[in-house]
Amino acid sequence: MPLAGIAGNRELIGGLEAEFARRPAHAYLFAGPRGVGKVLVAKGLVHNLLCERAPGPGFCCDPARCPTRLAIGAPAARARANAPAPPRCGCCSGCVQVALGVHPDFISVARQPNRTDLLIEQVRDLIDRLGVRPARGPRRVAVIDDAETLNLPAQNALLKTLEEPPGHTMIIMVTQSERALLDTVRSRTRPVRFGPLTPAEIAGVLTADHQVDAARAATIAPLARGSMSIALALAGGAAPPAAAMIDALGQAPALDFAAIQALAQEFFGARDQAVGNFELIARLLEEMLCFKLIAAEITAPSPEAARAMAEIAVRSDAAALARLAEAALGAAGAVDAMANSRLQAEQFWIAAGRELGARS
Q: How many degrees, rounded to 5, is the angle at CA 349 between CA 344 and CA 355?
């Protein structure tokens, strides 16, 4: 089946395909971490509905490896990798138009570049387009990405369409934080919750689809925090803040409040950045705890980082490492629920100084 090539969340995807074959809902809310394939699955289901050659679970396009989709915005990446152009697409015209974002019955809405939220004007345009009967397919389908950035007027404007949708429409909202949406919006959608990818799934995609060396993929995958987009950024040479976080954990007992404020400003100033870095810290602490308790080999960005993590683990109490990992995950959840990210960071690093200051 065309969606079979998407890594992770296999049971969930199979359930969605079966549901679409029977009686799909009029509105869905795809929620889960960044980089786990939510948008890719949503657009695959659009192909499911609008494919003109084999609509349904056997639609003709392969959204995980579609040459047309990969060609969009990819010439520079192909040039860097010295890779050939993708092969000619064999999909039907409907699937090609969905992949290109020009199908008359497919509406894609996302936050505009350099904007912090989805605008009410975008929602009003979406509502107007959904009111028109389908031009070619059985339905008009909208995918709203970055749904957590819908401001309150935009959410309220969308509410009536969710309450009384035209019979020929479907809306798929995609969000990293469903709690950022109004209860009235969430209650009128069918929730679908995606989980993070496993390190094995991430490593498999890196090696099979992105030609990353297996040893390097195995090192990157545990640091990606279940996110394929983070893994690809790391594989592309993006410098993760892991080294800075390890250094801060090592110095935590000696950090004064000015240093803590500087950490909070640099690494926890934005919500998405803070959530990601708190999750990264939790992962690093988990590695230290496993080393402390069962002498497991530490997975780290470099041998120097592994040695620094081992030193922290040796001099720290196991219970303190566990409490601090739990505190990092709690802070990530609080920020995801719209708590002040810098305040959460300040509280975490004060706790880190206290927990890691006690000798094991």
A: 125
Structure confidence by residue, pLDDT tens digits, 11-62: 999 999 999 988 999 999 999 988 899 999 999 999 999 998 888 888 888 7
User: What CA dihedral angle connects 96, 97, 100 and 104, to 10 degrees?
Assistant: -170
Give the global pTM: 0.71
Query: How many other C-beta atoms are found inside a 10 Å radius of the C-beta of residue 150?
Result: 27
Exposed (0-12), middle (13-18) or buried (19+): which is 117, by Cβ within 10 Å? middle
Class in CATH terms, 241-357: mainly alpha
Rounded to whole angstroms, the Cα distance separating 339 from 38 reads 24
Domain 2-193 is in which class?
Answer: alpha beta
* Chain CA centroid to CA 54, Å: 30
Q: From CA 99, how far away is CA 17, in angstroms rounded?
A: 19
DSSP symbol at 302: S
Each domain of the chain, given as residue ranges in start order, spans: 2-193, 197-238, 241-357
Distance CA(155)–CA(12), nearest Å, equals 27
Cα angle, residue 280 at apex, residues 276 and 281 outer, rounded to 5°? 120
- Residues in a beta bridge with 141: 106, 170
| Tokens coding 138 | 């059985």
Instruction: Determine contact, residues 223/283, Cβ cutoff 8 Å.
Output: yes
